[in-house]
């Protein structure tokens, strides 16, 4: 069953308090405004209409769905930005990829450690580049296999936070994400009506109280 296009729905909060927002971003919606009048509708603009003063902390690709963290004021934004910089925010994603990737044993995590650089002639694309790329590390674990479709459902944890990191890493090891219009071949793109990549989990310390917080949002695929 194809995921519904819910990018036009009002912004939905998984959590809100005086300092932070945890929002559900649908696939197809920008996190921040793009260039041109047709790219002004975005998650941050919708959030600011409902929570004036809300500030972006991190982003998901337009094609990716899932949890996005925003700050309610500048001090929270600064603290959360530092937490991301120091890798104190734990993120987990779910994806469906082409091919049989690893063993679905429920416990073993593997790594993709390949340097990523901007592809300046084809921006905004990224490439694996041993000479110019920045160190980039992704942890992954196979969750299940669909032998009839020759696909694998995987959990992903980006240790670094490069642009398009998960998409580039998976394509580089021969397991592009279904529906990926940038890094998958035409056949893999055609296997899904959207990019099957979803930010399912966030764990962090509350910027004001230090309380440990955990949030989960299951994907619709």
Q: Would you state the CATH class of the largest domain?
A: Alpha Beta
Full CATH superfamily name of the largest domain: Pseudouridine synthase
Secondary-structure element series: EEHEEHEEEEEEHHEE
Q: Into which percentage range does the β-strand content fall? A: 25-35%
CATH architectural category of the largest domain:
2-Layer Sandwich
Number of strands: 12
What general outline do the C-alpha atoms trace? globular
What is the CATH fold-level name of the largest domain?
Pseudouridine synthase
Average predicted confidence as pLDDT:
94
Helix-strand category: alpha+beta
Uncertain regions spanning at least 5 consecutive residues: none
What is the first-to-last residue Cα distance? Answer: 8 Å
Largest sheet: 10 strands, mixed
What would your notes on this structure say?
- With 221 residues, the protein is an alpha+beta fold.
- It has two domains: 10-86, Pseudouridine synthase; 89-203, Pseudouridine synthase (2-Layer Sandwich), CATH 3.30.2350.
- The chain has four helices and twelve strands; from the N terminus they run ββαββαββββββααββ.
- Strands 1, 2, 3, 4, 5, 6, 9, 10, 11 and 12 form a ten-stranded mixed beta sheet that branches.
- The longest helix is centred in the middle third of the chain and has 12 residues, at 74-85.
